[in-house]
Amino acid sequence: xxxxxxTGEIDTDPASGVxxxxxxxxxxxxxxLISLTDNxxxxxxxxxxxxxxxxMVSLMEKVAGILNERRGSLVVRGHTDGRPFRSGTNxxxxxxxxxxxxxxxxxxxxxxxxxxxxxxxxxxxxxxKVADDPLASENRRIEIYLRQEAPN
Length: 152
Description:
By secondary structure, this protein is α+β, with helices and mostly antiparallel strands. Helix content is 21%, strand content 26%. The protein has helices at residues 54-68, 92-108, and strands at 2-4, 8-10, 22-28, 31-37, 74-79, 117-122, 141-147. The strands form two sheets. It has a five-stranded mixed β-sheet with strand order 3-4-7-5-6. Helix 1 (54-68) crosses helix 2.
């Protein structure tokens, strides 16, 4: 469950009955990181696919609304788990990039100015959130980094 008085509320707490990813919001001196993470009860995308779940589409509309109320440029990042994946046309690198690109598309189709997106990045399984369990669902995530504008 993530709540922000100024920007509204996004609820994906499993106890509430709302199905969706785990959402974590952290900040540093340069901006705010919104991390949307798969969990044992929900996957944003089917395994080895960049086709978003219906709940993911709805959630990204809410995230876009919140981002529209904030200033700053954005970086959209895709991460996969450590499951070995390679086909004739795909691998974890392409999959993480495709998922990040879908997240970008979902954000911009609901009115987020695409000029605000500085980069779209795919990390494959190179930055695992749960390093001691490469197959953990928490390693599959989309991150949106909102860079704070430098003061004038």
